[in-house]
From TrEMBL:
This is Nucleotidyltransferase substrate binding domain-containing protein. CDD domains: CAP_ED (cd00038), NT_GlnE_GlnD_like (cd05401). PANTHER family: CBS DOMAIN-CONTAINING PROTEIN (PTHR43080:SF2), CBS DOMAIN-CONTAINING PROTEIN CBSX3, MITOCHONDRIAL (PTHR43080). Keywords: CBS domain. It holds the Pfam family CBS. Residues 13-130 form the Cyclic nucleotide-binding domain. InterPro entries: CBS_dom, CBS_dom_sf, cNMP-bd_dom, cNMP-bd_dom_sf, Diverse_CBS-Domain, DUF294_put_nucleoTrafse_sb-bd, GlnD_Uridyltrans_N, RmlC-like_jellyroll. GO terms for molecular function: [protein-PII] uridylyltransferase activity. It comes from the Bacteria.
Length: 612
């Protein structure tokens, strides 16, 4: 009993209570022991009846199997569910053996809140931080709901399913009976789809007899599928990526329904499919600029309401890709279609689908034959269009209107050779920007040829990857010997840390090196980490910890930038560590420690002692 009293006297905000009150409430505390892996409560369970205090050990609060909070000795949790009488928004998982949790009954906790103002203020402040309540505006696309909502939460359209040998006339009859605009066609090995449009274009327009045609003859195989447990956001991205209006939903191996764009639009009046349609049907830079401005507001809102940074990046990238593709179409309308193959590539953070709110445009052009006159005019107009739409210019002029970033295939091959053979600082910077390239408009095959060329050059070089890896260990995490934060000591960023330089960059650069080394084609850092885990380069635990460290650092930067924009300031990459909550400080230190561990891995793997 005395030990508990002393613990509470040293734990905020219980140390703001009178000693007699602490002694009294300690009688009601339940002390429970947990082992690593134990679940204290699950996301979506019944509203909690206890306030939880970590006496000793560590707990992860996870949402959708992703780390949200890393809690340690003295941290308190469970109060959001307790006060709101809501199901827990996270799962509490014990991550250290012999963890001891104190449980305070709800009625005792509520009595303390009503009796002591300072004690209550702590929880109201923390509650505001956790819930992230941001007023919804008319232009909101409610991005955070797309993450929280699972496909299975949507009322799905029950499909008409027929055998592949079914006569088309019978299929049409079934579709009419079920008032359906499509039907699914099953074979022994796959599933296809027939839509009203297929029947009109492939049968009626050709004056064919539906009684003499089998379903398999006009069906499109295979359909695109997704699991019912996926976030609605992933379903929307899949539909947008494949340019489809209907997505088959599976529960295990069973088809549970079909998600179509009308269903989604009725559920979310503003969504990515709607936005992409608006972008694709726009006829001028002015129309595109209006859509772009609305999207920027909604992204800021999504960030401030706690949207996962991985989804923020993918959301921005998917929409930006369509803006850029549309800009290419508008430019071609002016100058005509190019006589040779070409591709507009996005590079840097755009290529990785990891834009921050400070990101400018980084792009390049590759073309098949030497037709510099056409592509010079094309590139100038294209970049002018992007600027009118709202894309900020690149201060380093990494844009395809700069001849340096506009080359034929053979010229790019030579340039990459030159970069790799002469790893001086500007070439290393160019490699770091360029090697995350992907196509957003034009020929995919040209970009794949370029990727294959890069792979061959890397295989042939013994020194290139170690040199690139040395960049990832150049900036050490800003922690002192005693694990306190090393911040800027003077200037406009006094008391702050450059989170990009010391946190995000080492992970991005190091993961890029390992991805190139292991021929992983993904450009996104999160997906590269998962690819490295699947190839056995990382253990499951290390991959998860590194991924969550990266997620946390990206989230800190995005929230800081969103706040700066809302306050009318220019966003930057600095954060003030001592303004963070106790929990956030702890997670930030853990993230920097994980980067130290990652840098040691790179140092040993690539023998970087020779580069020191």
């Amino acid at each position: 009993m005395e030990e508990l009293i002393q613990f509470l006297r040293n734990t905020y905000p219980f140390n703001r209570l009178p000693l007699e009150e602490i002694k009294n409430l300690s009688k009601f505390l339940l002390k429970r022991d947990y082992q690593k892996g134990d679940i204290i409560f699950k996301e979506g369970a019944q509203p909690l009846q206890f306030l939880y205090i970590i006496h000793k050990g560590e707990v992860f609060l996870e949402k959708n199997n992703q780390l949200v909070y890393h809690l340690k000795d003295g941290d308190i949790f469970g109060y959001v569910s307790l006060l709101g009488e809501l199901p827990p928004a996270t799962t509490a998982r014990v991550v250290e053996d012999r963890t001891v949790i104190l449980e305070l009954p709800k009625d005792i906790f509520l009595n303390l809140l009503t009796g002591y103002d300072e004690f209550a203020r702590f929880f109201t402040k923390e509650l505001a931080k956790r819930v992230h309540r941001v007023p919804q505006t008319k232009t909101s696309f409610q991005m955070e709901r797309l993450i929280d909502v699972r496909v299975k939460d949507i009322k799905l359209k029950e499909p008409v399913i027929i055998a592949s040998e079914t006569v088309l006339q019978e299929a049409i009859k079934l579709m009419a009976e079920k008032d359906s605009t499509f039907c699914l066609v099953k074979t022994d090995s796959t599933v296809g789809i027939i839509t009203e449009r297929d029947i009109i274009k492939k049968v009626l327009a050709k004056d064919l007899n539906p009684q003499q045609i089998k379903a398999k003859d006009i069906a499109t195989f295979p359909v695109i599928e997704i699991s019912s447990s996926e976030p609605l956001f992933n379903a929307l991205l899949t539909m947008a990526k494949h340019g489809i209006r209907k997505l088959v939903i599976k529960d295990g191996n069973t088809i549970s329904g079909v998600l179509d764009d009308r269903t989604v639009i009725s559920h979310e009046s503003k969504n990515i499919i709607f936005l992409i349609k608006e972008i694709d049907k726009a006829k001028s830079a002015e129309e595109l600029a209006y859509i772009y401005s609305i999207i920027q507001d909604s992204i800021i809102e999504g960030v401030l309401s706690g949207m996962d940074p991985e989804y923020v990046g993918k959301y921005i990238a998917e929409l930006n890709d369509h803006f850029m593709k549309k800009a290419a179409q508008l430019t071609e309308n002016l100058y005509g279609t190019a006589s040779s193959l070409y591709s507009i590539m996005v590079i840097g953070s755009e290529g990785r689908r990891e834009q921050s709110l400070k990101t400018d445009q980084d792009n390049a052009l590759i073309y098949e034959n030497k037709r510099e006159d056409y592509f010079e005019r094309f590139s100038q107009t294209y970049i002018e269009l992007l600027l009118k739409i709202g894309f900020p210019p690149c201060p380093g002029n990494v844009m395809l209107n700069n001849p340096y970033w506009r080359k034929s295939k053979e010229e790019w091959f030579k340039e990459i050779h030159q970069w790799m053979e002469n790893p001086k600082p500007e070439n290393v910077l160019n490699i770091s920007i360029f090697f995350d390239f992907r196509s957003v408009a034009g020929s995919e095959s040209l970009v794949e040829e370029l990727r294959d060329h890069v792979k061959k050059k890397i295989k042939a070089s013994k020194t290139f990857l170690p040199f690139l890896a040395s960049e990832a260990v150049r900036f050490k995490p800003p922690l002192s010997f005693f694990k306190t934060f090393l911040v800027e000591k003077s200037g406009e960023h006094k008391g702050k840390i450059d989170i990009k330089k010391y946190g995000i960059f080492p992970i991005v650069q190091g993961i890029r090196v390992l991805a190139l080394d292991n021929e992983i084609n993904e450009t996104n850092t999160f997906e590269r980490i998962r690819g490295l885990k699947s190839k056995g380069v990382f253990t499951e635990e290390f991959a998860r910890d590194l991924e969550e460290s990266y997620r946390f650092l990206m989230s800190l930067r995005l929230k800081s930038q969103a706040t700066q924009i809302r306050e009318g300031k220019t966003p930057d990459n600095y954060i003030a560590p001592y303004s963070l909550s106790k929990t956030e400080k702890g997670v930030l230190k853990d993230s920097f420690k994980k980067i130290e561990e990652f840098q040691k891995l790179l140092f040993n793997k690539y023998n970087l002692r020779y580069f020191s």
